[in-house]
Design brief:
The complex is a heterodimer.
Chain A lengths: L17 E5 L26 H11 L4 E6 L10 H10 L3 E6 L7 H6 L5 E5 L4 H8 L4 H14 L3 E8 L7 H11 L3 E6 L5 H5 L6 H17 L5 E4 L2 E2 H6 L18 H4 L2 E4 L4 E4 L11 E2 L8 H29 L7 E2 L1 H10 L1 H10 L1
Parallel strand pairs in A: 1-2, 1-9, 2-3, 3-4, 4-5, 5-6, 6-7
Antiparallel strand pairs in A: 8-12, 9-10, 10-11
Helix pairs in contact in A: 1-2, 11-13
Chain B lengths: L1 H7 L7 H16 L3 E8 L6 E9 L6 H5 L4 E9 L6 E9 L4
Antiparallel strand pairs in B: 1-2, 2-4, 3-4
Classes of the chains: A alpha/beta, B alpha+beta.
Amino acid sequence: MEGHQSASSFASDPCVGGILHIHPTLQCNLTCLHCYSESSPRHREALAADDIIPLMESIRQYGYTVLSVSGGEPFLYKELSSVLMQAKLLGMQTQLVTNGILAESKIATESLPWLDLVAVSIDGDEKMHDEIRHMKGAYHKVIKGAETVVAAGKRLAVVSAIANGSWRKMTEVAEMAHDLGASFVQFHPLELSGRAIREIPNGLDLEDLHRAYIVFNYLQEKYAGIMHIQMDCLHRFVIETNPEICGYIDDAFIPTKTNFVRISRSVILDEKGNIMPFSYGLHPRYHIGNVKKKKSSEISAMLDDYFENRASTFSHLVSSSYKKYKTTTDDDNDLIVWSEYIVEQSRSSSIGNEVAVAV
Amino acid sequence: MEKEFLSSLEAAGIEKLHLKKYSALLTNLRSNRLLLEKWWVLGQPGPDVINVVGRLPKDSWGALPELFGTRGLDRVKVFPKGIINPEFIDVHMQFNARQM
């Protein structure tokens, strides 16, 4: 699964607007140990481009001007170039996250002209990467794939999952990314869900999360002005001093179709057609709708209805979660992946009941 | 230097509490626009003193009161650097890790 960055996705890029993340298929050529959605070759289903395009057309006007394609492996999605071409015709920026192995395939060749940025996953050094990918030689293939992207004149990003011990490899990943000509490196703490629960049961402990965070700070200084370094976790100090970074504006905030993007920089379309704010895995009670259950002509009205009438449910989830976090005295919570925290809160019964009362 | 830095993060005796202190201090200093140049720790097994050398952009005098309020700050030296007009502000800070 190449979607492990779904909550932020290069969001620190100052030119980036709201992001529509799509996961058109869970089909993948690999079975990575850390895959939270258990993508694999056995998945064959895919969303039709006709399901995706009406959503892109409608949501763009609400500030979601970036299309980010993940999966599964996007270069296995047969309608990829049609979707990307349409996004470009709509004036959207386009990006994609791939394992890089199929960068010279027919689908990739047809799609690259419509992409602004391609992110490849590099998880540690060669040994670690091949182990996680369950494929000997995967590391060399992703390097070759990255070179193909750069040769095509596209901006390159590198995404890298952090598990126990892999903080030791972060400097090597950044160095490799720099050598390849990448403009972004994004480190993402491992999510203990999907296949990772069985295959990497120790996940990422707090000590190694802090080590990774310290190395990330070091790398930011090292590559300042050269390459953008991002890590998908926030320190309590940042959360407390910048509530808007977490989607919390204030208690008087009323979400509408023009300001919803302020509390949810991302909208997700999953492989089943579910549309949800913020992050993959959010509890269904917060979903916006499902593209498969609506005619294309009804998508715009469905979004309008959500933004004007139902978005307060999600807004309440964010504000309740923010306040809960601020008041919690659990000192082990000083570094967190905010999107995972929101997903966790969306599934907790206490917040859910509170929301039910509020609605 | 990079190798030394990485090995210092798993030196004998380093535990969660120490790492949390480093994370908090880094976040705090960098949020106040301090560009870190050098960082070294004294003490065994855990840190007693954390020394930080960094620089602020020349238009960042306003960040100094915030930096001076950083928890555990014991000593600080500030030098404007540059001929005639300051080009940046050099900041040396020493923290008492036990008070952080």
